[in-house]
Specification:
8% strand; two-stranded parallel sheet; single chain; 6 helices; 3-stranded parallel β-sheet; mainly alpha; 202 residues; TIM Barrel
Amino acid sequence: MKFMLFILPTVPGTLEDRKRLRPIGRNTERYQQMLDEMRKLAVLADDAGFDVFATTEHHFHSEGYETSVAPLLLYADLAARTRRIKFAPLGLVLPAWDPIRAAEELAVLDQLTKGRLYAGFARGYQDRWVNVLGQQYHVTGAPMDGSAIDQHGEVLSLLDNETGMHSCLEPKTQASPVGAGGKRRHPRAQKNTGIGADEPEA
């Protein structure tokens, strides 16, 4: 059995802090606190025998405090402080990357870490940044509702058929609601209103 520590890099702060320091992601002291906490977690996980340390890739967080924008850079720092644990972006959102640069950076990091790297990939579902960073490929955020544009289920079925492995992942069955201007919003987005950076209207 293998064990993974999966985290979302998040600038620490109470709800009051997030309002007072809005957007808190720009606060250097809090950002450094987050980096120190992640370094401690990675070293602790390494010492405890965890196999993998993983994070997401997200951009333009209107809440202003999830800062998971550069997982490969983060892993280069953490790998220098650990001995054996591997690292995994879960996942790199490919429509937001130049494919050659993604391959090059993964290959260099694999060398820097001496093979302590897994490559995880994702389609991307958050319109507010997939639509911007992925515009050269004419993509939008996946609706996560199992419809034709959301190809996760199809890909997983192919993997199951080709490898004989059963995937534990299933497409989401609930679409994010469509709001003003045709924007999809995650059902939990309203909870963060007034906490993060202002989001421009359509």
